[in-house]
């Protein structure tokens, strides 16, 4: 009797209704192909350009403050045709390469010496870290007093911006090296110079390249800022003159070029880093 009651009261497992499985939305094929394609990198710039065009078309801001992309393009063409744009751009790039070359070379050498000399590190490290924390822009008035507003001022302010980044990257890379590398050098009876050339320098290449890439981008921003404040030529000075003459189309040309050139420099450094580090990827794939 109990079995009959249980059979009536409790439904069998196979009669228990099952909840329907959640329906998973199928991905849109064209969207998936677009995300995986190389053209997807242009999505955000095109979106920004469309937003800029819409803002000027519907007059979200006054026309004399925010110029349309077409007007900025025409102004850039006029500046390029007159030779003014090429002159300012060439001067800025020369200052960048000179200052970055000086600062990165000094930072690389100083980072190696500081990383390999514990005694020197104990004396220099506090001062190095204090000076590293000083904003480069805050030192512009002091550099103007020391070097004037000539080319030396721009070159040294760029060198300062790149020196500490590269030196810190190299110093940290050497400090993080495994002690086994130096033990191998002792086994082979390497001299100090051989340890630096055959062990230290190859091991710190990835960190040094990353530091130089960051330092180059930072140097470009510092240079344009310095030219805005004190310069008689250069891309930053062109924007400052446009502001004083209320030529905001010239200012927008400088702003767009500053971003494009900075992006190009970063991509060029990234390509160089990838090319020089092929051995590492090949070794990891073995």
UniProtKB/TrEMBL annotation:
| Classification lineage | Bacteria, Pseudomonadati, Pseudomonadota, Betaproteobacteria, Burkholderiales
Where is this protein found?
Cell membrane
Q: How does it sit in the membrane?
A: Multi-pass membrane protein
Q: Which GO terms describe its cellular component?
A: plasma membrane
Q: Name one Pfam family in it.
A: BPD_transp_1
The residues forming a coiled coil are none
Chain segments annotated as transmembrane = 39-58, 93-117, 129-149, 155-174, 195-216, 245-265
Q: Which UniProt keywords apply?
A: Cell membrane, Membrane, Transmembrane, Transmembrane helix, Transport
Spell out the protein name for this chain: ABC transporter permease
């Amino acid at each position: 009797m109990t079995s009959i009651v249980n059979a009536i009261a409790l439904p069998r497992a196979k009669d228990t209704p099952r909840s329907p499985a959640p329906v998973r939305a199928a991905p849109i094929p064209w969207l998936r192909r677009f995300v995986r394609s190389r053209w997807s990198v242009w999505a955000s710039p095109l979106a920004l350009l469309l937003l800029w065009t819409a803002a000027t078309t519907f007059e979200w801001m006054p026309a004399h403050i925010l110029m349309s992309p077409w007007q900025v393009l025409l102004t850039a063409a006029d500046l390029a045709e007159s030779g003014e744009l090429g002159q300012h751009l060439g001067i800025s790039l020369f200052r960048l390469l000179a200052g970055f070359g000086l600062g990165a070379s000094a930072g690389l050498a100083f980072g190696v010496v500081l990383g390999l000399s514990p005694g020197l590190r104990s004396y220099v490290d506090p001062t190095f870290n204090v000076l590293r924390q000083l904003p480069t822009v805050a030192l512009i008035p002091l550099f103007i007093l020391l070097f004037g507003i000539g080319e030396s001022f721009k070159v040294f302010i760029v060198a300062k911006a790149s020196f500490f980044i590269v030196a810190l990257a190299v110093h940290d890379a050497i400090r993080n090296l495994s002690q086994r590398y130096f033990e191998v050098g002792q086994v082979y009876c390497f001299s100090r110079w051989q340890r630096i050339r055959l062990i230290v320098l190859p091991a710190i290449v990835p960190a040094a390249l990353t530091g130089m890439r960051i330092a180059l981008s930072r140097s470009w921003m510092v240079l344009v800022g310095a030219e805005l404040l004190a310069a008689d030529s250069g891309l930053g000075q062109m924007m400052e003159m446009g502001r004083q003459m209320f030529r905001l189309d010239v200012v927008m040309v400088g702003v767009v070029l500053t971003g494009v050139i900075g992006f190009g420099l970063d991509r060029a450094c990234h390509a160089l880093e990838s090319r020089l580090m092929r051995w590492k990827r090949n070794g990891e794939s073995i």
